[in-house]
Fold this protein.
Amino acid sequence: MDRPPKRSPDSGLPVEPSSQGSLSLARARELEEKRRTFDAAQLFAEKERIAARSRIRQFMFGSLDGLLVPLGVVSGVAGGTANSKIVVIAGAAEAFAGALSMGAGEYLSGKSEAQVQQAAIRDEEEEIAAIPDIEKLEIELLFENEGLSPSDADLVAAKVTSSHRSWLNTMVEKELGLSAEPEGSALKDSLAMGASYLLASLVPLGPYLFLAVRPAFVVSVALTIVALLLIGLVKGRLAVMSLWRSALEVVAIGLASAAGGYLLGTLVPHLIGR
């Protein structure tokens, strides 16, 4: 039986119900809009867009630490003194030291991870050059493991290995579980981590610049809760999940962490003083 002719992406046909499954109405409309405005050039920009969005990890990590660690420090210091200047000095010192530490740690860890992955990719490239028959057999087995029949796997492997780039990318992604063309940047990730930490630390520290210790403590905690809510909402938006569930999750975890830091900051000095 002849196959029906292919239709262009801008054919205007609605998304078939069988393909919608459990899609929400908004998501179905989004997919229909993608069909209507399809541009092949955008396909290769999608990876960069996801890589940039994935920097949410650095943003979340840096912001949460920037809120909670300084909050624990300034709250602990505030519990033992009525002098706002002492609280501000302690909080500012921690904020700058923490931002530098977080940024440097992210840079070194990201750089080290990239170097390890590049070494593994070089090894794979050497294997393709030295033992291509074994590497082609590995591709066949990888595709068979994904459900293709031996004959189909052999056909696909023959097509994949006809291009060196396609061959290497397939081996790296399917055998090693890595990306042959990573989009991340250790420097950008470290700057995002350090900057988010430093900016977030201004939230719990700021009230002590203008208020006495006791009212500043209340305002500091309140502002931190609001900031945690906003971070949770941003995370929920980017992760396409319930906004309030994401926000409450971040607030609950953040407050639990802050409470632990505050207790340590207030109890340990008393214990040492004894």
